[in-house]
Design brief:
Helix content: 25-40%
Structural class: alpha+beta
CATH architecture of the largest domain: Roll
Number of strands: 9
CATH class of the largest domain: Mainly Beta
CATH superfamily of the largest domain: Pleckstrin-homology domain (PH domain)/Phosphotyrosine-binding domain (PTB)
Strand content: 35-45%
Strand order of the largest sheet: 5-8-9-7-6
CATH topology of the largest domain: PH-domain like
Number of domains: 2
Largest sheet: 5 strands, mixed
Radius of gyration: 19 Å
Number of helices: 3
Length: 151
Amino acid sequence: MWVYRHTQSGALVRWGLGIGAAIVLVALVPMARSGTAAALIPAIVLVALALAVWLFGSLTVEVSTERIAVWFGPGWIRKTIPVETVRDVTGVRNRWYWGWGIRLTPHGWMYNVSGFDAVELSLEGGQRFRIGTDEPGRLEAAIRQVLRAGP
């Protein structure tokens, strides 16, 4: 049973990819009408953009007494961290230029779908992992709760 579960929408990511799709349609559809092999390019680009929206359009975080799970969209791209490996948790703010998605930052790996707020997990072995969230206080409190409960 989970203690905390929240799905954050990546509206900006979806809008950005949607604008990219519109640009592809306007710029490359005339190419598709030419009947050449280049006609496949707009279709391939549009499928890739639709796939990216589906895979990265949201970020779900689930905290239970055993694990912290983070996944994008339908869950194919996920990270699971056993609670016993977490040494500390801190609310942090990400730099704007670190972007969104899966990133390697100067503070370890980060999963983020929108915004700049995050919770940083300090893990055994000195590793760190950041979870982007629009509920940093609630997520940090939930993780602290399971850390206090212990094994």
